[in-house]
Amino acid sequence: MKACFLIITCISLAALLAFSDRFEKESPDKKFVLSAADGGMLEVKLGELAIRQGTKAKTKEFGKMMITDHNKANNELKTLASKKKIEIPAKLSNTKQQIYDSLAVMSGEKFDMLYMNMMIASHEETVGLFQTESTSGKDPEFKKWADSKIPSLKHHLEMSKQLFSSESQPTKSNGN
Predict the structure, then answer these.
(1) Total domain count, the chain
(2) Which residues contact 106 (CB under 8 A, 6 or more apart)?
(3) Cα-Cα-Cα-Cα dihedral of 86, 139, 32, 65, to 10°?
(4) What is the C-alpha separation between 104 and 36, in angstroms, rounded?
(5) Contacts made by residues 103-108, CB under 8 angstroms, sequence distance 24+
(6) Which residues are CB-contacts of 40 (< 8 A; sequence separation ≥ 6)?
(7) pLDDT for the residue numbered 27
(8) What CATH number does the domain containing 90 carry?
(9) pLDDT, tens digit, for every residue of 60-90?
(10) Is residue 21 classed exposed, middle or buried when 0-12, 13-18 and 19+ CB atoms within 10 A define those classes?
(11) Domain residues for 145?
């Protein structure tokens, strides 16, 4: 009798563990959506900041591209999330707001360099997030959407690396 009870308990525990993701408050897909939305909102807000506070034309142009591209992606994500009954917050998370606030106090060439550095870090994180969803997500529509955005995100990453590299070059003096 004890052996039978033990076997039933083990089978029940195994089944519970196998299906435990159904009992999670937030599915991995929902976590992806919320994280992608938060990052997308940050990209737009930082792009707006780059237009206002950037000193170099290329920084401002990159900021405009971030606004255009990420607004488009954000709207697509909102539509898909709404269809799946996932509500996207209207404001940045505390972490993303702190990132924004830390850059908002900068100015001049220092702003340009730090903005491009943030774009590298942000896009590296975002590419990883989208690749994980693309390969490991459960919802086929989120997986497909994430996969479709990876080329553009990688392009943003490469552009930000190139611009950062040019921003961090010392200014040449005519007196030498």
Answers:
(1) 1
(2) 53, 114, 115
(3) -90
(4) 22
(5) 103/46, 103/49, 104/49, 104/53, 106/53, 107/53, 108/55
(6) 70, 73, 74, 77
(7) 87
(8) 1.20.1260.10
(9) 999 999 999 999 999 999 999 999 999 999 9
(10) exposed
(11) 27-167
What token pair was written down for 68?
């255009």
Q: Is residue 141 a part of any domain in this protein?
A: yes
Note whether residue 109 is domain-resident.
yes
Q: Which of 172, 169, 155, 136 is nearest to 62 (CA)?
A: 155
Whether residue 101 is predicted with pLDDT greater than 90 in this model: the reply is yes
